[in-house]
Amino acid sequence: MVLILFVTLFPFYWMLREAFTHNSEIFSDFGPWPRHPTFVNFLRVLGLATPAQQQAEAPGSYQTLNVFRDLLNSVIFTAAVALGSVFFCSMAAYAFARLRWRGRDVVFGVFLSALLMPPIFAILPNFVTVKSLGWIDTWPGLLAPYLLMQPFALFFLRQFYLAIPREIEEAAQIDGLNKWQIYWMITIRVSGAPLATVLIIQAAFAWNEYLWPLLVGQSSSTQLLTAALGSFVRNSPTSAPDWSGFMAATTITVVPLVIFVLLFGKRLVSNLQMTSGGK
Amino acid sequence: MTSGLVQVSGRTRERPPAERPLAARRRRRSDLRLALIFIAPSAVGLIVFYLWPLARGIYVSFTNYNILQPPTWAGLGNYQAMIHDQQFWNALWVTVQYVLVNIGSQTVLALGIAVLLDRLTRSLFIRVAVIFPWLVPNVAVGIISLFMLDKTVGILNHGLEAVGIPSQYFYQDPHQAIITVALVNTWRNVGYTALLLFAGMQAIPRSLYEAAEVDGAGEWKKFIRITLPLLRPVLALVMTVSVIGSFQIFDTVSVVYQQPIPQATVLYYYIYEAAFAQGRMGYASAMAVVLLIITSVLTVIQLRLLRSSQTDLA
C-alpha cells in the first residue's frame, strides 16, 4: 500500500521539486530537495520574469507561456462544458427515463450509438463544420461540440432517473403539478448527488481535453492550458529543453486539480461505484 | 468512464408492469411535446456533432479532399491505398501492441490494488490519492514522464545507474518506445480502474468470504475462487471499455514526441497527421472508418460478454 502511494504520488513530488530548481542544476542535483530553491521558473512561465532572468534560466528559448490567460481559459472552458452538458443532457435523460412518447426507445438507441464513435471520427468533419461557420479560434467553436450532448452524462443520468421511485412523481401529480414542473421542482432537487457526480466527471474530462482545443483554440484568447503546454513542449529546442520551465508550467496545471480534489475528492470516489454498475 | 452505460441499454424493458390504476391513467397521455422540448438541445448536438460527422466522414472516406477544394469522388481508392500503405499497417500494429501492454498491465495491477483497498483499508485519503493521476491531463502526465525518463537528467535513469543498470532511452528507444507510452498511461489510469473494480467488489457478499475462511481458504484461494469469478461481469465491462479507450491513444504520443519515431506512431496520430499536417482528409477519414469498425466490433463483443455473464451474480 505504501509502495502504491509512493509510485502514485512521487512523480508529482518530483515535478514540484524540479519546478523550484534552477535549470543549470538539473544535471547535478538529484537530492530529495533542491539545493537552491527558487521561484524564478514560476515567474518565467507566468510571464513575470525579467528578460535577464529568462536569458539566464533558458538561453535560446525565446518562447514564453502566458499561463495566466490559458489557465483562465481552461477554467472557463471546463465550467462551461460541465455545466452546459449536464444541464442539457439532464433534460434529455429525463425525457428518455420518465416521459412517455412514441419512438422513445428507438431514438434512445440512436443516441446510444454516439457512444461508439471514436472522437477522431467526429473531429475531422467537425473541424470542417466549425471552419465553415467561421468559428475557428472562437469560443463558440471551442465549446459547441461539447455543450449540448455528452453521451456519458446523458446515459448516466438516465440510469439514475430510472431509479427514482415513481411514488414521488405520482404524489406531485396528484398535487396538480405537470411533468415540466415535476422535472424542475422535484426530479432535479432529489438528484443532487448524481448531478454533482456527473458535473465532477465532466469537469475532469473537460480539463483533460487536448486535441480539439489544440486545433480550434490557437490565439491567446481561446488557447487552453493543455494545448499551450503541449505546444510549449513540442516547440522547445530538443537539444536543451527548458525542464524547469516545463515542470513549473505543469505544476500550474496540476495545482487546480489538487484544490478540486480537496473539495470534491470524497464525492468522486464514493460515487464512482454508481458509474461502474457496482451496487 | 463509460462502463455503466451498457447496462442502461438493457433496462428499458424492465419496467414493472404493475402500476396503480390512477397513475396509469394519468401517464397514458403521451408526453411527446414536452419530450421534444427536453431532448431538443441534445438532439441538435447529436445531429450536428455526431450523426452529421458520421455520415460526412463515411462519405469523405470515398473521396479525395483537402479542405480547400470540394471533395472529388475516389471510390474505393483510399481503401486500396490503405491496404498498400506500410505506414498504416505499422501504425495499426503499434496501436495493438500499445493496447496489449496497456490493458494487460493495467488490469493486473488494478485488480491487485482493488484487492488491497478492499482488504486493508477504508481510508478515503488513499482512494483519493490513487485516483489522482487519472484527473491530471494526459499532456501533463506526458511531460512529467518525459522529464523523469530522460536519458541524462531523468531521475529513473539516475536510480538505475545507482544500482548498476545502464541508463535507458525509453521513449527514444525503438524497442522500448511503445511499451513506455503504454506503461505511463497505465500509471495514469490504473487507480481509476482499480476503484471501479473495488466498487464491484463491494457487491460480493462478505458471508462468502467468511464461509471460505471457515473451510480454511487462504487469501489467494479466496481471490481465485470467489473474488475473480464474481467480479467477472464488472471486470469484463471495465476491460472492454478500457480497450476501446486504449485504441484512441493520442495525447501522450503527441506530447512526448516532436515527431514520433515509427515505433511509436499510433493509428490515431497517423490519422491526425494525414488530416491536419498533410491535408489528406479523404484518406484520414478512411482510416477513421477502420478505427470505427474496430471499436464497434469490440463493443459488440463487450455486449456479448456482458449478457453471457449476467447470470453469474445471481
Short descriptors:
heterodimer, A: 279 residues, mainly alpha, MetI-like fold, 2 domains, 14 helices, B: 314 residues, two-stranded antiparallel sheet, globular, disordered N terminus
What does this structure look like?
The complex is a heterodimer of chains A (279) and B (314). Chain A has 279 residues and is an all-alpha fold. Helices cover 71% and strands 0% of the residues of chain A. In chain A, α1 packs antiparallel against α14 and α4 packs parallel to α7. The longest helix of chain A has 34 residues. The two termini of chain A are 25 Å apart. Chain B has 14 helices and two strands, in the order αααββααααααααααα. Chain B has a single domain, classed as MetI-like fold, CATH 1.10.3720.10. Chain B has 314 residues and is mainly alpha-helical. The N terminus of chain B is likely disordered. Chains A and B meet through α1, α4, α5, α6 and α7 of A and α1, α2, α3, α5 and α6 of B.
